[in-house]
Design goal:
The protein has helices at residues 3-19, 41-53, 65-70, 75-94, 110-121, 134-149, 179-192, 209-213, 215-218, 233-242, 247-260, 265-268, 281-286, 291-301, 312-333, 356-364, 370-382, 387-400, 405-415, 421-431, 447-454, 459-464, 485-490, 500-517, and strands at 26-31, 57-63, 99-103, 123-129, 153-157. It is mainly alpha-helical. The protein starts with a helix and ends with a helix. The structure holds flavin-adenine dinucleotide. Flavin-adenine dinucleotide (FAD) binds next to helix 13, helix 15, helix 18 and helix 20.
Length: 518
């Protein structure tokens, strides 16, 4: 059975016994990747339960350094999450709701710790939003059963996607493996089920008793990042000014984007120098905003009041947010992609290169391909990279350097502020042609043409590759081939580490050989 089905079975099996469980002294909401108090489904359900029974709501967050490791969380991402907890704590405190945060070193201890805390706080009911990675789904399935055996109810609900995974099937009843027909069905499904765009109220204020009874919990501090995920002072300063955290920032960003940029999104979204996208991915990945809120706010601005039709910028943006849903649906349906395997099994036999010098040059933005280097330096400096450039550098790693795409996927997760397993794995699978609905393997991006098309004036390159700041005109895209050799050499900009035309042929045969032996 797929992990999600294990969870469904556990909830089904325990439903009749957990329905009868009394509320007792308090109700708990367990925060994970849903670090907001507005439009949070499980939190709203927990709050309603507490209100109906007249008992306090307590919020819980467990920091697990092992989880950070397992999910390859970048230090910038960990910092963003810990800072966000502080904002969340303050928002909840205004509602007299405590947010209790504790570090649990070993992640296998989490279920026991949850049970202990429930006993300590006299809680028979705990709520959480569902996470779709395999380990999380399996852990939740076990917890639902174990807690039920201990006379407690654990309610795990869908929240992260606009349309819950499993709700869209093709005519033959299967999950779509191609985006376009999936997207058409997604739009139709939302239009037929408009309650999917109903936003959840923030929790209600706790009864006065919470402050006195659970007083100690209000004083609990937010822990520092574990040593191996800590930022240097310089990084803290840099990242904290670039990535203001918390749900209010997310809402501000969404509103500003919808007022100023969304109308022209379809024209600007592919231009890395343009600043024409929302930069909301960090918030969507940490749950400081919900995908539902994003789609709802954008749809409300569309004169058709629909997800499609009307304003081209709005519909294109909604269709991009939908990609996030798509990749989560894929992950739930084909969980083996969590196990380092390509979506397409016939692509498992490509013989990849593990050339460490080439990989290092790619990581550091020193390949001699200006658009690739600009993008990698943007990633290293901001913890973020423009979508077009993510495709360019991923294609370059897999097809020009023939390096195992999983090394690039990992590097991204270790550096992105918005690292998200499903979207990252999907993006790498697309670009390396091994994923669901991928770029065909024989379509190999030419970095030079990509550069000329999407950064025509070289503005993005000049910003991120200072060695080329003085290079004028078309030479910016290929300084050593177009007469800017002297400037490039003087400033120490490297020569190209491969010849695109040659490696293109090599890649084509490596893919062909891999597929035929697969
Ligand atoms: P906008 O253009 O404003 O889009 C709005 C939102 O829609 C994004 O915030 C994101 O949540 C979603 N979205 C947009 N495009 C995609 C897409 N192609 N796939 C999935 N969701 C999308 N996105 C991540 O959130 N985390 C990742 O780890 C990640 N890794 C990627 C790796 C590769 C190789 C590629 C090609 C793409 C990856 N993406 C990832 C998708 C995309 O690049 C980013 O979501 C986007 O650049 C974020 O910028 P934005 O918020 O301004 O996006």
């Amino acid at each position: 059975a797929r992990p999600i089905e294990e969870l469904y079975s556990a909830m089904e099996e325990t439903r009749s016994s957990t329905k009868k469980i009394d509320v007792k002294d308090s109700v708990i909401h367990w925060f994970k990747m849903d670090l907001r108090h507005a439009d949070n489904r499980a939190l709203a359900l927990a709050s309603d339960k507490a209100q109906a029974a007249g008992v306090p709501l307590i919020c819980l967050y467990l920091v697990s350094p092992q989880d950070f490791e397992a999910h390859l969380r970048a230090p910038v991402r960990v910092d963003f999450m810990l800072r966000t907890l502080e904002v969340l704590k303050q928002d909840l405190a205004k509602l007299d709701i405590p947010l209790y945060v504790e570090t649990v070193e070993k992640r296998k201890k989490i279920p026991d710790r949850v049970l202990e805390l429930m006993e300590e706080w006299g809680a028979n009911h705990i709520y959480a939003n569902m996470e779709y990675e395999v380990d999380e789904l399996r852990r939740e399935a076990h917890m639902v059963r174990d807690l039920a055996e201990n006379g407690k109810s654990f309610e795990v609900v869908h929240d992260s996607c606009v349309v819950p995974p499993g709700n869209l099937a093709s005519g033959s009843g299967n999950q779509y493996a191609v985006y376009t027909p999936w997207y058409r069905t997604w739009v139709a499904h939302v239009h037929e089920n408009l309650d999917l765009l109903e936003l959840y109220d923030p929790p209600s204020k706790n009864a006065g008793a919470a402050r006195s009874k659970y007083k100690a919990l209000f004083g609990c501090p937010i822990p520092e990042a574990p040593e191996n995920k800590a930022l240097s002072d310089e990084e803290k300063k840099r990242f904290r000014s670039i990535w203001p955290c918390g749900e209010h920032e997310a809402m501000k960003r969404l509103d500003k984007f919808c007022q100023e940029l969304v109308g022209n999104y379809h024209n600007q979204r592919n231009l890395p120098a343009a600043n024409g996208t929302s930069s909301l991915s960090v918030h969507l990945a940490s749950g400081t905003i919900s995908a539902r809120t994003c789609v709802r706010v954008a749809r409300d601005r569309n004169k058709t009041k629909k997800l499609n039709g009307g304003n081209e910028g709005i519909q294109t943006w909604i269709s991009e947010v939908a990609w996030r849903d798509f990749y989560k649906h894929v992950l739930v349906h084909w969980p083996y992609i969590c196990m380092n395997k390509p979506f397409k099994p016939e692509y498992a036999n490509i013989s990849w290169s593990y050339d460490e010098d080439h990989f290092k040059a790619w990581c550091e933005g020193k390949t001699g391909f200006p658009i690739v280097d600009a993008a990698m330096r943007q990633l290293n400096h901001l913890g973020y990279m423009h979508n077009r450039c993510r495709m360019i550098v991923a294609s370059f790693l897999a097809k020009d350097l023939l390096i195992d795409w999983r090394k690039g996927e990992r590097y991204f997760m270790e550096h992105l502020v918005d690292g998200d397993f499903a979207s990252n794995n999907g993006g790498w699978g697309f670009s390396a042609s091994v994923g669901v609905d991928p770029q065909p393997y024989f379509r190999i991006f030419n970095p030079l043409l990509q550069s000329e098309k999407f950064d025509p004036d070289g503005e993005y390159i000049r910003k991120w590759v200072p060695e080329l700041a003085s290079v004028q005109g078309k030479a910016i895209h290929e300084p050593y081939g177009r007469g800017a050799e002297a400037a490039a050499k003087k400033n120490g900009y490297p020569r190209p580490i491969v010849v695109h035309k040659e490696v293109r042929e090599k890649a084509l045969s490596a893919y062909k050989d891999g597929i035929s032996s697969g």
